[in-house]
C-alpha cells in the first residue's frame, strides 16, 4: 500500500526553497540557521507574496485530492496504516513519593 501523501509546503517554504541559494550567495559562510532567520526577515518584508500564496493554495488542493484518493483506496484509519493521532495515551502510573517528601512528613510528625 502507498504511503499517505505528505502535507504541502506553505507559501513561505516554497519561496525559501527558491531563495535559499541567493541568500547563501549574498552571505558567504552563513549557517543554516542564519539562512532561515534571514529568509524570515526577507519574507516578512516582501510585498508580492501572491505568486507564492497561489502556488501554496494549488499544492494544498493537490494534497487534499491525494488524501481523498488515498483514503478511498483503503488508506488511513487503523494504527497499522499510520493512524498515530488516534493512539491512546498510556495510563499514568501512580507517582511514588520521593525521599524528600517522606522526610518532610517525618518532620511534621516530630513537631507535634
Q: How would you portray this structure in words?
A:
Residues 79-84 have low confidence and may be disordered. This protein has four helices and no strands. The radius of gyration is 26 Å and the shape is flat. By secondary structure, it is an all-alpha fold. It is 59% helix and 0% strand. Keywords: DNA-binding, Nucleus. Pfam families: HMG_box. InterPro entries: HMG_box_dom (IPR009071), HMG_box_dom_sf (IPR036910), HMGB (IPR050342).
Quick summary of this structure?
The protein has 112 residues and is mostly helical. Helices cover 59% and strands 0% of the residues.
What keyword list fits this structure?
single chain, 112 residues, mainly alpha, 4 helices, 59% helix
Rg, nearest Å? 26 Å
Total strand count, please? 0
Oligomer: single chain
Helix content: 55-70%
> Unreliable segments (pLDDT under 50, ≥5 consecutive)?
79-84
Question: What about the largest sheet?
Answer: none
- Provide the residue-averaged pLDDT: 80
Q: Determine the N-to-C terminus distance.
A: 69 Å
Shape: flat
Which percent band covers the strand fraction?
under 5%
Tally of alpha and pi helices: 4
Class by alpha and beta content: mainly alpha
Order of helices and strands: HHHH
Keywords: DNA-binding, Nucleus
Pfam families: HMG_box
Protein name: HMG box domain-containing protein
Q: What is the element layout, followed by pairings?
A:
Layout: H1 11-26, H2 32-45, H3 50-72, H4 99-111
Helix pairs in contact: 1-2, 1-3
Amino acid at each position: 500500500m502507498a504511503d499517505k501523501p505528505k502535507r504541502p509546503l506553505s507559501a513561505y517554504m516554497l519561496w525559501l526553497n527558491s531563495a535559499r541559494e541567493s541568500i547563501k550567495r549574498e552571505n558567504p559562510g552563513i549557517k543554516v540557521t542564519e539562512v532561515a532567520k534571514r529568509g524570515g526577515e526577507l519574507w516578512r518584508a516582501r510585498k508580492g507574496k501572491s505568486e507564492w500564496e497561489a502556488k501554496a493554495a494549488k499544492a494544498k488542493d493537490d494534497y487534499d485530492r491525494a488524501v481523498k484518493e488515498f483514503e478511498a483506496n483503503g488508506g488511513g484509519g487503523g494504527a497499522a496504516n499510520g493512524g498515530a493521532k488516534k493512539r491512546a495515551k498510556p495510563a499514568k502510573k501512580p507517582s511514588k513519593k520521593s525521599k524528600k517528601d517522606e522526610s518532610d512528613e517525618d518532620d511534621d510528625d516530630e513537631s507535634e
